[in-house]
Design a protein that fits this description.
By secondary structure, this protein is mainly alpha-helical. 73% of the residues lie in helices and 3% in strands.
Length: 131
């Protein structure tokens, strides 16, 4: 029995399993842990990216919400203004240029003087000879 144990130690075996098999299992275990670590890191990175994307989308949504609330308030103010006769009259005057009976409409037009080229017959005659 002692000879068999010495013979196995000589061959690199302990408890019936060779050293090369043990090294192989250790390397496979380390490789498995590295692969597991890689996929864990990738999953964490994707979760981080999704969180950043969600944060950006939330900011956009909050901005849109604020704009919509402001628009709603403006529309409510316009509806309230149009519910009065004075408000209706104001809108009709602004949009359609209407006037009350007996009123006259005055339209002010800015005049931009058009430059007029002044040439004399003498100047044209001299230019005609020279050309």
């Amino acid at each position: 029995m002692a000879d068999k144990l010495q013979h196995e130690r000589f061959l690199g075996r302990r408890d019936g399993v060779s050293v090369s098999v043990r090294v192989l299992f250790r390397r496979a275990g380390i490789l498995g842990l590295v692969v597991l670590l890689f996929f864990s890191v990738m999953g964490s990175w994707r979760a981080y990216q999704k969180a950043q994307e969600s944060s950006a989308m939330r900011t956009v949504a909050e901005t849109e919400n604020t704009d919509l609330v402001e628009r709603e308030q403006k529309l409510k103010a316009d509806i309230e203004r149009l519910s009065t006769d004075r408000g209706k009259e104001e809108v009709l005057r602004e949009r359609y240029g209407l006037a009350k009976e007996g009123e006259h409409m005055v339209v002010i037009v800015e005049s931009n003087p058009i430059p007029v080229a002044t040439t004399s017959a003498w100047k044209e005659w001299v230019q005609g000879i020279l050309h």
